[in-house]
Protein backbone atom coordinates (compact mmCIF):
# COMPACT_ATOMS: atom_id res chain seq x y z
CA UNK A 1 0.00 0.00 0.00
CA UNK A 2 1.36 3.44 -0.96
CA UNK A 3 1.17 6.43 1.32
CA UNK A 4 -1.34 9.26 0.89
CA UNK A 5 -0.20 12.35 -1.02
CA UNK A 6 0.33 15.72 0.63
CA UNK A 7 1.09 19.28 -0.44
CA UNK A 8 1.48 20.25 -4.08
CA UNK A 9 1.10 16.80 -5.69
CA UNK A 10 -2.11 16.32 -3.72
CA UNK A 11 -3.48 19.69 -4.81
CA UNK A 12 -2.58 18.97 -8.45
CA UNK A 13 -4.31 15.60 -8.45
CA UNK A 14 -7.40 16.98 -6.74
CA UNK A 15 -7.53 19.74 -9.37
CA UNK A 16 -7.19 17.16 -12.16
CA UNK A 17 -10.05 15.09 -10.68
CA UNK A 18 -12.20 18.22 -10.37
CA UNK A 19 -11.46 19.12 -13.97
CA UNK A 20 -12.34 15.64 -15.19
CA UNK A 21 -15.68 15.64 -13.36
CA UNK A 22 -16.47 19.13 -14.64
CA UNK A 23 -15.76 18.00 -18.21
CA UNK A 24 -18.10 15.01 -17.80
CA UNK A 25 -20.84 17.23 -16.34
CA UNK A 26 -20.36 19.75 -19.17
CA UNK A 27 -20.68 16.94 -21.73
CA UNK A 28 -23.92 15.88 -20.08
CA UNK A 29 -25.24 19.47 -20.07
CA UNK A 30 -24.33 19.83 -23.75
CA UNK A 31 -26.03 16.54 -24.65
CA UNK A 32 -29.12 17.66 -22.75
CA UNK A 33 -29.12 20.95 -24.68
CA UNK A 34 -28.63 23.08 -21.55
CA UNK A 35 -25.49 24.67 -23.04
CA UNK A 36 -24.39 25.24 -26.63
CA UNK A 37 -26.29 26.43 -29.68
CA UNK A 38 -30.06 26.54 -29.57
CA UNK A 39 -31.39 23.53 -31.46
CA UNK A 40 -34.75 22.71 -32.94
CA UNK A 41 -36.21 20.40 -30.30
CA UNK A 42 -39.64 18.80 -29.79
CA UNK A 43 -40.08 21.20 -26.88
CA UNK A 44 -39.48 24.24 -29.10
CA UNK A 45 -42.04 23.08 -31.65
CA UNK A 46 -44.70 22.52 -28.99
CA UNK A 47 -43.80 25.84 -27.31
CA UNK A 48 -44.42 27.55 -30.65
CA UNK A 49 -47.84 25.89 -31.05
CA UNK A 50 -48.77 27.07 -27.57
CA UNK A 51 -47.42 30.56 -28.18
CA UNK A 52 -49.63 30.87 -31.28
CA UNK A 53 -52.85 29.19 -30.20
CA UNK A 54 -52.69 29.86 -26.47
CA UNK A 55 -52.14 27.54 -23.53
CA UNK A 56 -54.95 25.00 -23.24
CA UNK A 57 -54.13 22.74 -20.27
CA UNK A 58 -54.82 19.05 -20.75
CA UNK A 59 -55.45 19.26 -24.50
CA UNK A 60 -53.33 17.82 -27.29
CA UNK A 61 -50.91 20.49 -28.44
CA UNK A 62 -51.93 20.11 -32.07
CA UNK A 63 -55.16 18.83 -33.59
CA UNK A 64 -56.48 19.80 -30.16
CA UNK A 65 -60.17 19.61 -31.02
CA UNK A 66 -61.49 16.16 -31.70
CA UNK A 67 -63.62 13.28 -30.51
CA UNK A 68 -63.09 9.64 -29.69
CA UNK A 69 -64.66 6.84 -31.73
CA UNK A 70 -64.37 3.09 -31.87
CA UNK A 71 -65.02 0.29 -34.30
CA UNK A 72 -63.10 -2.41 -36.12
CA UNK A 73 -61.03 -3.14 -39.19
CA UNK A 74 -62.10 -5.95 -41.52
CA UNK A 75 -59.07 -7.19 -43.37
CA UNK A 76 -59.62 -8.21 -47.01
CA UNK A 77 -56.56 -10.48 -46.90
CA UNK A 78 -55.25 -8.83 -50.08
CA UNK A 79 -52.33 -7.15 -48.29
CA UNK A 80 -51.34 -10.29 -46.36
CA UNK A 81 -48.82 -11.17 -49.07
CA UNK A 82 -47.20 -7.74 -48.76
CA UNK A 83 -46.87 -7.57 -44.99
CA UNK A 84 -46.66 -10.15 -42.25
CA UNK A 85 -48.53 -7.79 -39.89
CA UNK A 86 -51.45 -9.67 -38.36
CA UNK A 87 -53.86 -6.77 -39.04
CA UNK A 88 -53.76 -7.66 -42.76
CA UNK A 89 -54.97 -11.22 -42.21
CA UNK A 90 -57.12 -11.08 -39.07
CA UNK A 91 -60.82 -10.96 -39.99
CA UNK A 92 -61.82 -8.32 -37.45
CA UNK A 93 -59.36 -6.09 -35.59
CA UNK A 94 -60.67 -3.82 -32.77
CA UNK A 95 -60.02 -0.12 -33.41
CA UNK A 96 -59.93 2.97 -31.21
CA UNK A 97 -59.90 6.23 -33.15
CA UNK A 98 -60.02 9.98 -32.97
CA UNK A 99 -61.39 12.45 -35.51
CA UNK A 100 -59.98 15.96 -35.18
CA UNK A 101 -59.53 19.23 -36.95
CA UNK A 102 -56.07 20.76 -37.47
CA UNK A 103 -54.64 23.45 -35.24
CA UNK A 104 -53.70 23.84 -31.61
CA UNK A 105 -56.86 25.67 -30.50
CA UNK A 106 -59.43 23.26 -29.00
CA UNK A 107 -62.21 25.84 -29.46
CA UNK A 108 -61.85 26.56 -33.20
CA UNK A 109 -65.08 26.32 -35.20
CA UNK A 110 -65.10 22.97 -37.05
CA UNK A 111 -65.79 24.59 -40.42
CA UNK A 112 -62.88 27.06 -40.12
CA UNK A 113 -60.08 24.54 -40.55
CA UNK A 114 -59.36 22.82 -43.89
CA UNK A 115 -57.18 20.08 -42.40
CA UNK A 116 -58.95 17.18 -40.71
CA UNK A 117 -57.39 14.11 -39.23
CA UNK A 118 -58.16 10.58 -38.20
CA UNK A 119 -55.88 8.77 -35.76
CA UNK A 120 -56.27 5.03 -35.22
CA UNK A 121 -55.03 2.30 -32.96
CA UNK A 122 -55.51 -1.21 -34.32
CA UNK A 123 -54.93 -3.97 -31.74
CA UNK A 124 -54.43 -7.35 -33.40
CA UNK A 125 -54.89 -10.70 -31.66
CA UNK A 126 -51.12 -11.36 -31.58
CA UNK A 127 -50.84 -8.61 -28.95
CA UNK A 128 -49.38 -6.06 -31.34
CA UNK A 129 -50.50 -2.50 -31.99
CA UNK A 130 -50.53 -0.27 -35.02
CA UNK A 131 -51.07 3.43 -34.46
CA UNK A 132 -51.41 5.82 -37.34
CA UNK A 133 -52.26 9.50 -37.62
CA UNK A 134 -53.69 10.50 -40.99
CA UNK A 135 -54.61 13.89 -42.46
CA UNK A 136 -56.82 15.11 -45.27
CA UNK A 137 -53.95 16.56 -47.36
CA UNK A 138 -52.01 13.82 -49.19
CA UNK A 139 -48.70 15.69 -48.85
CA UNK A 140 -47.08 18.21 -46.55
CA UNK A 141 -45.80 21.57 -47.77
CA UNK A 142 -42.22 20.74 -46.80
CA UNK A 143 -40.01 17.72 -46.22
CA UNK A 144 -37.85 18.55 -43.19
CA UNK A 145 -38.61 19.47 -39.56
CA UNK A 146 -36.60 22.70 -39.93
CA UNK A 147 -38.68 23.85 -42.91
CA UNK A 148 -41.86 22.75 -41.10
CA UNK A 149 -40.85 24.95 -38.17
CA UNK A 150 -40.29 27.87 -40.56
CA UNK A 151 -43.76 27.22 -42.00
CA UNK A 152 -45.30 27.31 -38.51
CA UNK A 153 -43.53 30.61 -37.85
CA UNK A 154 -44.71 32.01 -41.18
CA UNK A 155 -48.28 31.13 -40.18
CA UNK A 156 -48.07 33.11 -36.90
CA UNK A 157 -51.36 35.01 -36.60
CA UNK A 158 -51.05 38.75 -37.04
CA UNK A 159 -52.32 40.29 -33.76
CA UNK A 160 -54.26 42.92 -35.76
CA UNK A 161 -56.27 40.49 -37.92
CA UNK A 162 -55.95 37.21 -36.02
CA UNK A 163 -54.93 35.63 -39.36
CA UNK A 164 -51.52 34.79 -40.81
CA UNK A 165 -49.85 37.63 -42.69
CA UNK A 166 -50.39 36.75 -46.40
CA UNK A 167 -47.14 38.38 -47.52
CA UNK A 168 -45.16 36.36 -45.00
CA UNK A 169 -46.84 33.13 -46.12
CA UNK A 170 -46.22 34.02 -49.75
CA UNK A 171 -42.54 34.64 -49.00
CA UNK A 172 -42.33 31.28 -47.25
CA UNK A 173 -43.87 29.38 -50.17
CA UNK A 174 -41.67 31.26 -52.64
CA UNK A 175 -38.62 30.15 -50.66
CA UNK A 176 -39.93 26.55 -50.63
CA UNK A 177 -40.74 25.42 -54.18
CA UNK A 178 -41.11 21.84 -52.87
CA UNK A 179 -44.49 23.02 -51.51
CA UNK A 180 -45.98 23.10 -55.05
CA UNK A 181 -48.00 19.88 -54.63
CA UNK A 182 -49.37 21.00 -51.28
CA UNK A 183 -50.36 24.42 -52.67
CA UNK A 184 -52.10 22.73 -55.59
CA UNK A 185 -54.03 20.53 -53.13
CA UNK A 186 -55.01 23.59 -51.06
CA UNK A 187 -56.16 25.41 -54.20
CA UNK A 188 -58.31 22.51 -55.45
CA UNK A 189 -59.56 21.43 -52.02
CA UNK A 190 -63.32 21.39 -51.60
CA UNK A 191 -64.25 20.83 -47.98
CA UNK A 192 -66.81 18.07 -47.47
CA UNK A 193 -69.64 18.39 -44.96
CA UNK A 194 -68.54 15.52 -42.74
CA UNK A 195 -65.69 13.58 -41.19
CA UNK A 196 -67.54 10.60 -42.72
CA UNK A 197 -66.93 11.57 -46.36
CA UNK A 198 -63.36 12.84 -45.95
CA UNK A 199 -60.26 10.93 -47.10
CA UNK A 200 -57.35 10.54 -44.73
CA UNK A 201 -53.75 10.01 -45.84
CA UNK A 202 -50.69 8.61 -44.12
CA UNK A 203 -48.59 11.38 -45.77
CA UNK A 204 -45.35 9.65 -44.76
CA UNK A 205 -44.22 6.45 -46.43
CA UNK A 206 -43.67 3.17 -44.60
CA UNK A 207 -42.13 -0.14 -45.60
CA UNK A 208 -44.29 -3.26 -45.61
CA UNK A 209 -42.24 -6.35 -44.80
CA UNK A 210 -43.53 -9.69 -46.10
CA UNK A 211 -42.95 -13.13 -44.60
CA UNK A 212 -39.71 -13.50 -46.60
CA UNK A 213 -38.41 -10.18 -45.27
CA UNK A 214 -38.87 -8.36 -48.57
CA UNK A 215 -39.65 -4.64 -48.13
CA UNK A 216 -42.01 -2.56 -50.27
CA UNK A 217 -42.64 1.12 -49.65
CA UNK A 218 -46.25 2.28 -49.40
CA UNK A 219 -48.39 5.22 -48.44
CA UNK A 220 -51.91 4.52 -47.31
CA UNK A 221 -55.25 6.30 -47.50
CA UNK A 222 -58.65 5.78 -45.98
CA UNK A 223 -61.16 6.40 -48.76
CA UNK A 224 -64.71 7.12 -47.57
CA UNK A 225 -67.55 4.86 -48.70
CA UNK A 226 -69.90 7.73 -47.80
CA UNK A 227 -70.58 9.95 -50.84
CA UNK A 228 -69.13 13.45 -51.00
CA UNK A 229 -71.30 16.48 -50.22
CA UNK A 230 -69.87 19.98 -50.03
CA UNK A 231 -69.65 21.90 -46.77
CA UNK A 232 -72.38 24.59 -46.74
CA UNK A 233 -70.99 28.08 -47.29
CA UNK A 234 -72.53 29.34 -44.05
CA UNK A 235 -72.03 27.17 -40.98
CA UNK A 236 -73.32 28.56 -37.68
CA UNK A 237 -72.58 25.58 -35.45
CA UNK A 238 -69.07 25.65 -33.91
CA UNK A 239 -69.14 21.88 -33.49
CA UNK A 240 -70.74 21.17 -36.87
CA UNK A 241 -68.57 18.15 -37.73
CA UNK A 242 -68.91 16.58 -34.29
CA UNK A 243 -72.69 16.92 -34.29
CA UNK A 244 -72.82 15.57 -37.83
CA UNK A 245 -70.73 12.52 -36.91
CA UNK A 246 -72.91 11.74 -33.90
CA UNK A 247 -76.02 12.07 -36.03
CA UNK A 248 -74.65 9.73 -38.72
CA UNK A 249 -73.41 7.15 -36.20
CA UNK A 250 -76.79 7.11 -34.49
CA UNK A 251 -78.16 5.85 -37.84
CA UNK A 252 -75.49 3.22 -38.48
CA UNK A 253 -71.78 2.48 -38.91
CA UNK A 254 -69.52 4.42 -41.29
CA UNK A 255 -66.98 2.79 -43.62
CA UNK A 256 -63.69 3.60 -45.30
CA UNK A 257 -61.51 1.49 -47.59
CA UNK A 258 -57.89 1.21 -46.50
CA UNK A 259 -55.97 1.58 -49.74
CA UNK A 260 -52.22 0.97 -49.94
CA UNK A 261 -50.33 2.71 -52.75
CA UNK A 262 -47.11 0.94 -53.73
CA UNK A 263 -44.08 3.05 -54.58
CA UNK A 264 -42.08 2.40 -57.74
CA UNK A 265 -38.30 2.62 -57.83
CA UNK A 266 -37.27 6.26 -57.64
CA UNK A 267 -40.42 7.52 -55.88
CA UNK A 268 -39.77 9.88 -52.98
CA UNK A 269 -40.21 7.59 -49.98
CA UNK A 270 -38.39 9.87 -47.53
CA UNK A 271 -39.97 13.17 -48.52
CA UNK A 272 -43.62 13.76 -47.53
CA UNK A 273 -43.82 16.93 -49.68
CA UNK A 274 -43.41 14.96 -52.91
CA UNK A 275 -46.44 13.15 -54.36
CA UNK A 276 -45.90 9.90 -56.22
CA UNK A 277 -46.94 9.84 -59.87
CA UNK A 278 -50.45 8.57 -60.56
CA UNK A 279 -50.98 5.05 -61.90
CA UNK A 280 -49.07 3.46 -59.05
CA UNK A 281 -50.51 0.04 -58.18
CA UNK A 282 -52.88 0.01 -55.21
CA UNK A 283 -54.11 -2.72 -52.90
CA UNK A 284 -57.35 -2.53 -50.91
CA UNK A 285 -56.27 -3.94 -47.57
CA UNK A 286 -59.70 -3.94 -45.96
CA UNK A 287 -62.50 -1.85 -44.54
CA UNK A 288 -62.48 0.40 -41.51
CA UNK A 289 -65.86 0.38 -39.77
CA UNK A 290 -66.54 3.10 -37.18
CA UNK A 291 -69.70 2.32 -35.27
CA UNK A 292 -69.53 4.26 -32.03
CA UNK A 293 -68.74 7.75 -30.82
CA UNK A 294 -67.63 8.50 -27.27
CA UNK A 295 -68.32 11.71 -25.39
CA UNK A 296 -66.48 14.71 -26.87
CA UNK A 297 -62.76 14.57 -25.98
CA UNK A 298 -63.46 11.69 -23.61
CA UNK A 299 -63.18 7.99 -24.09
CA UNK A 300 -60.37 5.60 -24.75
CA UNK A 301 -58.59 7.76 -27.34
CA UNK A 302 -57.95 10.62 -24.95
CA UNK A 303 -55.14 8.97 -23.00
CA UNK A 304 -53.36 7.57 -26.07
CA UNK A 305 -50.41 9.02 -27.92
CA UNK A 306 -51.06 8.24 -31.61
CA UNK A 307 -47.33 8.04 -32.27
CA UNK A 308 -47.03 7.03 -35.96
CA UNK A 309 -43.95 4.96 -35.11
CA UNK A 310 -45.91 2.49 -32.99
CA UNK A 311 -45.95 -0.21 -35.65
CA UNK A 312 -46.49 -3.97 -35.61
CA UNK A 313 -43.98 -6.46 -36.97
CA UNK A 314 -44.41 -6.33 -40.75
CA UNK A 315 -44.54 -2.52 -41.00
CA UNK A 316 -41.41 -0.41 -40.67
CA UNK A 317 -40.87 3.34 -40.81
CA UNK A 318 -39.19 4.99 -43.77
CA UNK A 319 -36.20 7.25 -43.16
CA UNK A 320 -38.47 10.29 -43.65
CA UNK A 321 -37.17 12.90 -41.15
CA UNK A 322 -40.70 14.31 -40.67
CA UNK A 323 -41.88 10.91 -39.45
CA UNK A 324 -39.24 10.83 -36.70
CA UNK A 325 -40.01 14.45 -35.81
CA UNK A 326 -43.73 13.68 -35.54
CA UNK A 327 -42.97 10.85 -33.14
CA UNK A 328 -40.72 13.06 -31.00
CA UNK A 329 -43.16 16.00 -30.96
CA UNK A 330 -46.21 13.81 -30.20
CA UNK A 331 -44.32 12.43 -27.24
CA UNK A 332 -43.58 15.94 -25.93
CA UNK A 333 -47.25 16.90 -26.38
CA UNK A 334 -48.35 13.72 -24.56
CA UNK A 335 -45.93 14.33 -21.67
CA UNK A 336 -47.00 17.93 -21.35
CA UNK A 337 -50.74 17.30 -21.33
CA UNK A 338 -50.33 14.38 -18.93
CA UNK A 339 -48.51 16.71 -16.51
CA UNK A 340 -51.28 19.27 -16.89
CA UNK A 341 -53.87 16.58 -16.22
CA UNK A 342 -52.00 15.53 -13.07
CA UNK A 343 -51.29 19.02 -11.76
CA UNK A 344 -54.54 20.79 -12.48
CA UNK A 345 -56.86 17.87 -12.71
CA UNK A 346 -57.29 19.42 -16.18
CA UNK A 347 -59.23 16.92 -18.23
CA UNK A 348 -60.82 18.25 -21.36
CA UNK B 1 -11.41 -13.42 6.68
CA UNK B 2 -12.45 -10.34 4.66
CA UNK B 3 -11.16 -10.17 1.06
CA UNK B 4 -8.97 -7.24 -0.08
CA UNK B 5 -10.84 -6.91 -3.36
CA UNK B 6 -14.32 -7.51 -4.75
CA UNK B 7 -15.04 -10.87 -6.34
CA UNK B 8 -14.10 -10.88 -10.06
CA UNK B 9 -17.76 -11.39 -10.99
CA UNK B 10 -18.78 -8.37 -8.89
CA UNK B 11 -16.06 -6.30 -10.57
CA UNK B 12 -17.14 -7.43 -14.02
CA UNK B 13 -20.76 -6.50 -13.28
CA UNK B 14 -19.72 -3.16 -11.78
CA UNK B 15 -17.80 -2.04 -14.85
CA UNK B 16 -20.27 -3.42 -17.35
CA UNK B 17 -23.10 -1.60 -15.62
CA UNK B 18 -21.01 1.55 -15.17
CA UNK B 19 -20.55 1.82 -18.93
CA UNK B 20 -24.21 1.01 -19.64
CA UNK B 21 -25.57 3.41 -17.00
CA UNK B 22 -23.43 6.30 -18.19
CA UNK B 23 -24.49 5.55 -21.78
CA UNK B 24 -28.15 5.43 -20.68
CA UNK B 25 -27.94 8.81 -18.97
CA UNK B 26 -26.47 10.43 -22.08
CA UNK B 27 -28.90 8.62 -24.42
CA UNK B 28 -31.83 9.65 -22.21
CA UNK B 29 -31.13 13.39 -22.11
CA UNK B 30 -30.17 13.35 -25.78
CA UNK B 31 -33.25 11.56 -27.14
CA UNK B 32 -35.82 13.80 -25.46
CA UNK B 33 -34.25 16.82 -27.18
CA UNK B 34 -33.83 15.23 -30.56
CA UNK B 35 -36.37 15.15 -33.37
CA UNK B 36 -34.15 13.69 -36.08
CA UNK B 37 -34.39 10.00 -37.13
CA UNK B 38 -31.71 9.45 -34.48
CA UNK B 39 -34.49 10.01 -31.89
CA UNK B 40 -36.26 6.84 -32.99
CA UNK B 41 -33.09 4.79 -32.81
CA UNK B 42 -32.07 6.22 -29.43
CA UNK B 43 -35.47 5.44 -27.89
CA UNK B 44 -35.23 1.77 -28.99
CA UNK B 45 -31.68 1.57 -27.67
CA UNK B 46 -32.75 3.17 -24.38
CA UNK B 47 -35.48 0.55 -23.88
CA UNK B 48 -33.16 -2.35 -24.76
CA UNK B 49 -30.33 -1.24 -22.47
CA UNK B 50 -32.84 -0.42 -19.73
CA UNK B 51 -34.18 -3.95 -19.79
CA UNK B 52 -30.65 -5.38 -19.76
CA UNK B 53 -29.77 -3.17 -16.79
CA UNK B 54 -32.82 -4.37 -14.88
CA UNK B 55 -31.68 -8.00 -15.25
CA UNK B 56 -28.08 -7.08 -14.39
CA UNK B 57 -29.03 -5.17 -11.23
CA UNK B 58 -31.07 -8.13 -9.96
CA UNK B 59 -28.04 -10.41 -10.39
CA UNK B 60 -25.87 -7.76 -8.80
CA UNK B 61 -28.07 -7.36 -5.73
CA UNK B 62 -27.97 -11.15 -5.33
CA UNK B 63 -24.18 -11.20 -5.54
CA UNK B 64 -23.89 -8.31 -3.12
CA UNK B 65 -25.90 -10.25 -0.56
CA UNK B 66 -24.03 -13.52 -1.16
CA UNK B 67 -20.39 -12.47 -1.50
CA UNK B 68 -18.22 -10.90 1.21
CA UNK B 69 -17.16 -7.27 0.65
CA UNK B 70 -13.68 -5.85 1.23
CA UNK B 71 -13.79 -3.48 4.23
CA UNK B 72 -13.23 0.28 3.93
CA UNK B 73 -9.81 1.46 5.21
CA UNK B 74 -9.60 1.67 9.01
CA UNK B 75 -8.40 5.28 8.96
CA UNK B 76 -11.41 6.53 7.00
CA UNK B 77 -13.30 9.17 9.06
CA UNK B 78 -16.72 7.98 10.17
CA UNK B 79 -18.50 10.74 8.26
CA UNK B 80 -16.93 9.56 4.98
CA UNK B 81 -17.67 5.99 5.95
CA UNK B 82 -21.33 6.84 6.38
CA UNK B 83 -21.35 8.90 3.15
CA UNK B 84 -19.91 5.90 1.31
CA UNK B 85 -22.56 3.55 2.70
CA UNK B 86 -25.39 6.01 1.99
CA UNK B 87 -24.26 6.74 -1.58
CA UNK B 88 -23.92 3.02 -2.35
CA UNK B 89 -27.40 2.36 -1.00
CA UNK B 90 -28.74 5.24 -3.13
CA UNK B 91 -26.94 3.90 -6.20
CA UNK B 92 -28.45 0.45 -5.73
CA UNK B 93 -31.87 1.99 -5.15
CA UNK B 94 -31.69 4.09 -8.31
CA UNK B 95 -30.25 1.26 -10.42
CA UNK B 96 -33.30 -0.78 -9.48
CA UNK B 97 -35.83 2.08 -9.61
CA UNK B 98 -34.91 3.58 -12.99
CA UNK B 99 -35.70 0.59 -15.23
CA UNK B 100 -38.81 -0.22 -13.17
CA UNK B 101 -39.99 3.39 -13.55
CA UNK B 102 -39.35 3.17 -17.28
CA UNK B 103 -41.36 -0.05 -17.56
CA UNK B 104 -44.06 1.34 -15.26
CA UNK B 105 -44.40 4.65 -17.10
CA UNK B 106 -44.72 2.97 -20.50
CA UNK B 107 -47.45 0.77 -19.00
CA UNK B 108 -49.30 3.74 -17.48
CA UNK B 109 -48.93 5.70 -20.74
CA UNK B 110 -50.68 2.95 -22.69
CA UNK B 111 -47.59 2.30 -24.82
CA UNK B 112 -46.81 -1.14 -26.22
CA UNK B 113 -43.89 -2.72 -24.37
CA UNK B 114 -40.73 -4.17 -25.91
CA UNK B 115 -40.78 -7.98 -26.30
CA UNK B 116 -44.50 -7.78 -25.50
CA UNK B 117 -43.70 -7.65 -21.79
CA UNK B 118 -46.78 -7.45 -19.57
CA UNK B 119 -47.86 -4.02 -18.29
CA UNK B 120 -46.61 -3.37 -14.76
CA UNK B 121 -49.39 -0.86 -14.05
CA UNK B 122 -52.83 0.09 -15.41
CA UNK B 123 -53.20 2.63 -18.24
CA UNK B 124 -53.66 5.91 -16.35
CA UNK B 125 -52.64 9.33 -17.68
CA UNK B 126 -52.07 10.98 -14.29
CA UNK B 127 -50.03 8.02 -13.07
CA UNK B 128 -48.03 8.26 -16.30
CA UNK B 129 -47.31 11.94 -15.61
CA UNK B 130 -46.01 11.14 -12.14
CA UNK B 131 -43.79 8.25 -13.26
CA UNK B 132 -42.50 10.07 -16.35
CA UNK B 133 -41.42 13.04 -14.25
CA UNK B 134 -39.89 10.81 -11.58
CA UNK B 135 -37.94 8.95 -14.29
CA UNK B 136 -36.54 12.26 -15.57
CA UNK B 137 -35.70 13.84 -12.22
CA UNK B 138 -34.20 10.69 -10.73
CA UNK B 139 -31.98 10.43 -13.81
CA UNK B 140 -30.44 13.78 -12.84
CA UNK B 141 -30.04 12.57 -9.25
CA UNK B 142 -28.40 9.38 -10.55
CA UNK B 143 -26.01 11.36 -12.73
CA UNK B 144 -25.07 13.55 -9.73
CA UNK B 145 -24.46 10.49 -7.53
CA UNK B 146 -22.39 8.88 -10.30
CA UNK B 147 -20.22 12.02 -10.40
CA UNK B 148 -19.76 11.93 -6.61
CA UNK B 149 -19.00 8.20 -6.74
CA UNK B 150 -16.47 8.68 -9.54
CA UNK B 151 -14.85 11.64 -7.74
CA UNK B 152 -14.58 9.71 -4.49
CA UNK B 153 -13.10 6.67 -6.27
CA UNK B 154 -10.47 8.84 -7.94
CA UNK B 155 -9.58 10.54 -4.64
CA UNK B 156 -9.19 7.10 -3.04
CA UNK B 157 -7.05 5.89 -5.93
CA UNK B 158 -4.95 8.93 -6.75
CA UNK B 159 -4.78 10.97 -3.54
CA UNK B 160 -5.43 8.77 -0.50
CA UNK B 161 -3.99 5.72 -2.32
CA UNK B 162 -5.65 3.46 0.23
CA UNK B 163 -6.53 0.45 -1.92
CA UNK B 164 -10.25 1.26 -2.28
CA UNK B 165 -10.07 1.90 -6.04
CA UNK B 166 -7.88 -1.17 -6.49
CA UNK B 167 -10.50 -3.33 -4.77
CA UNK B 168 -12.82 -2.62 -7.73
CA UNK B 169 -10.10 -2.50 -10.43
CA UNK B 170 -11.33 -4.03 -13.70
CA UNK B 171 -8.04 -5.82 -14.57
CA UNK B 172 -6.08 -8.51 -12.74
CA UNK B 173 -4.89 -7.33 -9.33
CA UNK B 174 -1.19 -6.70 -8.76
CA UNK B 175 0.37 -8.33 -5.74
CA UNK B 176 2.15 -5.81 -3.51
From TrEMBL, chain A:
SUPFAM superfamilies: Heme-dependent catalase-like (SSF56634). It comes from the Bacteria. SMART domains: Catalase. Keywords: Heme, Iron, Metal-binding, Oxidoreductase, Peroxidase. Signal peptide: none annotated. Gene3D superfamilies: 1.20.1280.120, Catalase core domain. It is an enzyme of class 1 (oxidoreductase). The keyword Metal-binding applies. Residues 23-348 form the Catalase core domain. The keyword Heme applies. Its cofactor is heme. GO terms for molecular function: peroxidase activity. Its EC number is 1.11.1.-. Belongs to the catalase family. Has an organic peroxide-dependent peroxidase activity. This is Catalase-related peroxidase. It comes from Pseudomonas rubra. The lineage of its organism: Bacteria, Pseudomonadati, Pseudomonadota, Gammaproteobacteria, Pseudomonadales.
Automatic annotation (TrEMBL), chain B:
It comes from the Bacteria. Keywords: Cell membrane, Electron transport, Heme, Iron, Membrane, Metal-binding, Transmembrane, Transmembrane helix, Transport. The keyword Transmembrane applies. Signal peptide: none annotated. InterPro entries: Cyt_b561_bac/Ni-Hgenase, Cytochrome_b561_oxidase, Di-haem_cyt_TM. The chain crosses the membrane at residues 12-32, 44-67, 88-106, 137-159. It is found in: Cell membrane. It is a multi-pass membrane protein. Its main location: membrane. Residues 6-171 form the Cytochrome b561 bacterial/Ni-hydrogenase domain. Its cofactor is heme b. It holds the Pfam family Ni_hydr_CYTB. PANTHER family: BLL0291 PROTEIN, CYTOCHROME B561. Belongs to the cytochrome b561 family. This is Cytochrome b/b6 domain-containing protein. It comes from Pseudomonas rubra. The lineage of its organism: Bacteria, Pseudomonadati, Pseudomonadota, Gammaproteobacteria, Pseudomonadales.
Amino acid sequence: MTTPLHGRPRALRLAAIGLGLTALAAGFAYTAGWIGNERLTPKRIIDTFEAQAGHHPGYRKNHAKGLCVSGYFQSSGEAAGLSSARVFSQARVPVIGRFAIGGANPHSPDASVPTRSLALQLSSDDGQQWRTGMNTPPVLAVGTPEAFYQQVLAMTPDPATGKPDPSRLQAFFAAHPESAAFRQWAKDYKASDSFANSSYNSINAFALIDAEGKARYVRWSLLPQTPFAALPTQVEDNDYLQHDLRQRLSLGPLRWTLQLTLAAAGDAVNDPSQPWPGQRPTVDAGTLVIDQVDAAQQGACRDLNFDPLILPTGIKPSADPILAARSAAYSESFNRRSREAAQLGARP
Amino acid sequence: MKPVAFHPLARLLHWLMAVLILAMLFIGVSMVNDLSPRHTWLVSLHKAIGLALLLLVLVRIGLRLLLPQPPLPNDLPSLQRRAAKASHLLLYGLMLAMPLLGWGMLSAGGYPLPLQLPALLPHDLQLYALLRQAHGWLAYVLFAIVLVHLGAALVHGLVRRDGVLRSMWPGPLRKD
